Amino acid sequence: MSSAAESLDFQLDSPEVKNNPYPVLRRLREEDPVHYVEQMDCWLVSRYKDIYDLYTDPRLTGDRRKWEYYQQPAAGSFFRWVDDHGLMALDKKTHTMQRRLIGSGLTPSGVRSIEQKIRDVVDHFAKPLHGRTGVVDIMKEYTTPIPIVVVGSITGVTAPGVDDTQFSELAQAVIRGFFGMVSPEVLARSERNYVQLSQWVKDTIRARREKPEDDLISYLIAAKDGDFFLDDEGIVAQVSSMLAAGTETTSSGGVTCLITLLDHPEALERVRADRSLIPQTVNEVLRYGFGGIGGSQRFALEDFEYQGRKIRKGQLVILSSAGASHDPEVYADPDVFDIDRNPQGILTFGLGPHYCLGANLARAELGNIVDAALDFLPRGARVLHDQIETEALGMFDRKVNCPIDFGDGS
Ligand code: HEM
After folding, report:
1. Confidence of residue 64 (pLDDT cuts 50, 70, 90)
2. Whole-number CA gyration radius for the chain
3. Residue 151 Cβ < 6 Å to ligand 1
4. Exposed, middle or buried by CB within 10 Å (0-12, 13-18, 19+), for 22?
5. Phi, psi of 202 (to 5 degrees)
6. Taking 60 as the threshold, does the pLDDT of residue 224 lie above it?
7. At the top level of CATH, which class does the domain 3-405 belong to?
8. For the segment 198-220, what is each residue's pLDDT rounded down to a tens digit?
9. What residues have CB less than 8 Å from 376, skipping those under 6 apart?
């Protein structure tokens, strides 16, 4: 390791790095772009070009069973199913067929056709926020339930206003088990909640077999790709996986959009005055504000050398999406939030065969979250940064609240 690299003495999980990963990522890109993280015996990749290449490098896989420290979840558990049959574990042919089945409703035209469902969910949670004063936890009341109820509504499991609080709480408990390297207690609680959630989804499947409706479960029951189809267990697991992949990400994305705009009042005023700027504003937030120091996880299928580093078979390689998004080789003045930038080629949704299936849906949700919020956020509303709390979940940190001072109504 170079002497410059040796002097990089940060802790990945220190509060300073978690709160503001960009200075460390800048140093890593400049001094040690494929950095060995001793604490976790893994590699952290921080340059756009390397991340771009490694996303499609056949010597790496997203299948966590190939990790040298992998611990197999209990037989018969949901997490065992995810590890053995989830999208990361499938061979190429089955993966392509599964993506076709699940993703068919999430193409740009598919998402346009469910735009009204998305808007109904967003409006349902925006309505009580009109005219509010004082401090509002925008995460609890707005951005957390929306993506969960959107997935519930698209799949057909729930609808806005119908059991959505119960569904949202159950789903949140299940989702926590998906965070990398969580404690056995969190995993066990998640598993218990999954049993309840799966019963709920199974009841919906039974109802849709009798009377199909315009939702994803009805579609998955009927859909076949050659000889391939999903049985009830497969449908339950896919709905749960969509909840896992598409809710926490979009919820924190919604919060990031609102915080970023409130922290940049000039941009906020421009978007208030011209709502057609929303898609490009969301696109810039996806570049500017997404991802902590970590990112997508890959595991080496063989020993190989990359940029002078010896990567061992079974080692974890982390592709830092914030590292890529703030690489000055690709984005000029990367630490500046500029809604006119409309950045191209962002890697926030990954790249290659596992590119985010829900990217179109996520963009639509984030756009609607911003649009509806502009109607209830009073001028002068401000984020109470010092009151934001986080909780550590495995190697991740997540916000648990986002207090915004709505003012006194004057
Ligand atoms: C802002 C919100 C979101 C972000 C930042 C995000 C990010 C990502 C990333 C980086 C990947 C690639 C992971 C890898 O290669 O290791 C991914 C995959 C995936 N995402 Fe998203 N995602 C978001 C929202 C959603 C939504 C709304 C859904 C669906 C409801 C969804 C479903 C999926 C699925 C199913 C995969 C796995 C695809 C595969 O393995 O073939 N995501 N997402």
Report:
1. very high
2. 21
3. yes
4. middle
5. -60, -40
6. yes
7. mainly alpha
8. 888 889 999 999 999 888 888 88
9. 126, 129, 130, 131, 132
Confidence bin at 1 (pLDDT 50/70/90): very low
Q: What are the DSSP calls for 113-169, one per residue?
A: HTHHHHHHHHHHHHGGGTT--SEEEHIIIIITHHHHHHHHHHHTS-BTTBSHHHHHH
C-alpha–C-alpha distance, residues 116 and 93, integer Å: 34
Distances in whole angstroms, Cα of residue 26 to Cα of each of 8, 322, 327: 11, 10, 8
The residue-averaged pLDDT of 249-275 equals 96
Q: Are 186 and 393 in contact (CB under 8 A)?
A: yes
Half-sphere exposure of 72 (CA within 13 A, CB side): 5
* Neighbouring-strand partners of residue 295: 320
What is the percent of the chain where pLDDT is above 90?
A: 54
Rounded to an integer, what is the distance from CA 160 to the centroid of its chain? 22
Q: Which of 56-60, 210-214, 327-331 has the lowest mean pLDDT?
A: 210-214
Max CA-CA distance within the chain?
A: 68
What's the 359 CA to ligand 1 centre distance in angstroms? 7
In short, whether 350's Cβ falls inside 6 Å of ligand 1 is yes
Here the contacts of 281-284 (C-beta below 8 Å, separation 24 or greater) are: 281/257, 281/339, 281/370, 282/257, 282/363, 282/366, 282/367, 282/370, 283/342, 283/343, 283/346, 283/363, 284/337, 284/338, 284/339, 284/341, 284/342, 284/343
Looking at residue 20, what DSSP letter applies? -
What does the pLDDT read at residue 325? 97
- Averaged pLDDT, 266-290: 97
> CA 143, CA 346: separation in Å to the nearest integer?
23
Residue ID of nearest Cα to ligand 1 atom 40:
354
Question: What band does 180 get if pLDDT is binned at 50, 70 and 90?
Answer: low
363 lines ligand 1 (CB under 6 A): no
The amino acid present at 271, given as its one-letter code, is: V
Probe ligand 1: pick from 151, 216, 349, 370, max atoms within 8 Å of CB? 349
